Amino acid sequence: MGKRVNFSDSNLELHEITQHHTETENALKEYYGVDGKREFLPVKFIGYSAEEVFIEFRSRIEELEKTSSLTLLSSLEAKLRIDYLKRCYQKGKDGLSKDFRAIHKQKYHRASLEEDILETWKKHYPEKKWLISELLGALKYRHWLAHGRYWEPKLGRKYDYSYIYSLIEQAYKNLPLKS
Fold first, then answer.
1. Is the whole model's pTM more than 0.85, yes or no?
2. For residue range 152-164, what is the model confidence (pLDDT) as tens digits?
3. How many C-beta atoms lie closer than 10 Å to residue 94's C-beta?
4. What b-and-e string marks burial along 142-174, b requiring 16 or more CB atoms within 10 Å of the CB?
5. pLDDT of res. 65
6. Which of 113, 112, 85, 110 is nearest to 100 (CA)?
7. Which residues of the chain have pLDDT under 50?
8. How far from chain centre, in Å, is Cα 122?
9. Alpha-carbon span 75 to 98, nearest angstrom
10. Residues whose CB falls within 8 Å of the CB of residue 142, separated by 6 or more in sequence, listed in order
11. What are the structural domain ranges in the chain?
């Protein structure tokens, strides 16, 4: 097999991403005075109506949701790729590990997340097919986010931070990942 990938241990855990998201959302609420505890808004808002301040606040929250969703999905990819590589390196006897090693012989660490890794999971865990299919759909959303959102995506559903978080939480609970 090819060279081993040195894991950086820099990938974020779900709770770290959630904490960052929540703290940033709270900071935006305070900055825009949404919580009603602030007497004066920053100078930037001179001339803004209350509605304009709120519209801008909502825009910032929507952007935060997109960037946090991208981070969540990137973290999921790291978990799945680490699992794939660990199964290859540890030479497990289970069918999933054997199939991963066959892929690794040809593609090494360049296996496609969707076509190789997740489709192999689907083959070995057919009872989790619904979950893996949902992850594949969410990864299309991630591609759209990561590549600048320049096209109109055909996603089949609306994705938001809460849905992405719940989906990934379900994946971590229901898939026996080695990462």
1. yes
2. 999 999 999 999 9
3. 11
4. bebbeeeeeeeeeeeeebebeebbebbeebeee
5. 98
6. 85
7. 1
8. 19
9. 25
10. 69, 70, 73, 74, 77
11. 14-174
